[in-house]
Design brief:
This protein has helices at residues 11-22, 57-70, 137-140, 156-166, 185-192, 286-306, and strands spanning 2-7, 27-31, 75-77, 80-87, 93-99, 103-111, 115-117, 133-134, 148-152, 171-175, 197-200, 203-210, 214-221, 226-230, 233-236, 240-242, 272-274. The chain is α/β, with parallel strands linked by helices. α1 packs parallel to α2, α1 (11-22) packs parallel to α6 and α4 runs parallel beside α5 (185-192).
Length: 307
């Protein structure tokens, strides 16, 4: 019987792992991917993490994992499919976590599975995924050096992707469904200063076309007019979806699938805490994820003592 199981090893999960070891809690981190770090690994440059301005996202994620390893955190590669609330022979509550490779038991859970990129859900998107359609500019941008690409979205990630791609590509077209961007003003200023970036306002991409790879996208304006726009690649950055399926029926969630919890990270299930982007909150950043990891472990430690 473990004290704690941390599910996910992005910034929130790794922060929780460090704090759990410092608190002397018998804990493991379950991660389904080959590497830890979460979405930070896909970020070209992190310029707002205190003390590490301009840090490459992959390098920062690697440092987070190295810190957890150095603290003595234990990692298990597995994918959680279900979690069951149980009681032991003394009537004390615990949780049974079902993975693909094994079953795990602990008094507390820290949910830190984060989010994934959202799809547009348009014709041709799945067909050309990996053949010109991408959700990660830093992963695939090098394949489009000197070519023309489009980016869909208006938030920080979309603008960051457009800036990154503009350094590699001959032209970048940013397509946004509204007449203004949601991204931070500092990012917008950098974007608008780039000569090879064009912004198409009040429009959506409704289809991806091509033969063996992307050749055109159909751009439809809010007025209904459509044009075929030739591009070599389409980068989609239209938001995120919470990875919360394995917690269904265990904790309360909002309509979008985020786990409901306040600043204490406590969910509706006693002994279950949520940290990082998976939690309902106003600001989803690396710094808030790291903070959540620390808070979740502190609250979990108090809960374990109460048992």
């Amino acid at each position: 019987m473990l004290d704690m199981i941390i599910i996910g090893s992005g910034p929130a999960g790794l922060s929780a792992a460090v704090y759990a070891k410092r608190a002397g809690l018998d804990s493991i981190v379950i991660e389904k991917e080959f590497v830890s770090g979460g979405q930070v690994l896909l970020t070209y440059e992190v310029d707002n993490y205190l003390g590490l301005p301009g840090m490459n996202g992959f390098d920062l994620g690697t440092k987070f994992r190295e810190h957890a390893d150095g603290a003595g955190a234990s990692f298990v590669m597995d994918e959680v499919s279900a979690i069951e609330a149980c009681k032991d022979e003394n009537g004390k509550p615990f949780y049974r976590v079902q993975g693909g490779a094994d079953t795990y038991e602990a008094r507390t859970i820290v949910a830190a599975t984060g989010t994934v990129h959202r799809n547009l859900g348009i014709p041709g998107e799945d067909t050309f995924a990996g053949k010109g359609v991408s959700y990660c500019a830093t992963c695939d941008g090098a394949f489009f050096k000197g070519k023309e690409v489009a980016v869909v979205g208006g938030g920080d990630v979309a603008v960051e992707d457009a800036i990154y791609l503009a350094r590699l590509c001959s032209k970048v077209t940013l397509i946004h469904r509204r007449d203004r961007l949601r991204a931070a003003k500092s990012l917008q200023d950098r974007l608008f200063a780039m000569e090879n970036v064009e912004v198409v306002w009040n429009a959506n991409v409704t289809e991806v076309q091509g033969d063996k790879k992307v050749e055109n996208i159909i751009i439809q304006s809010n007025s209904g007019a459509s044009i075929a726009y030739p591009v070599d690649g389409l980068f989609i950055a239209v938001g995120i979806t919470p990875v919360s399926k394995c917690f269904e029926g265990l904790v309360e969630m909002d309509d979008a699938g985020y786990i409901i919890a306040g600043e204490d990270c406590a969910t509706s299930a006693p002994g279950v805490y949520v940290a990082g982007d998976l939690r309902t909150k106003k600001l989803r950043q690396i710094v808030t994820a790291v903070s959540d990891g620390a808070v979740a472990v502190s609250m979990a430690g108090n809960y374990i003592e109460s048992l």
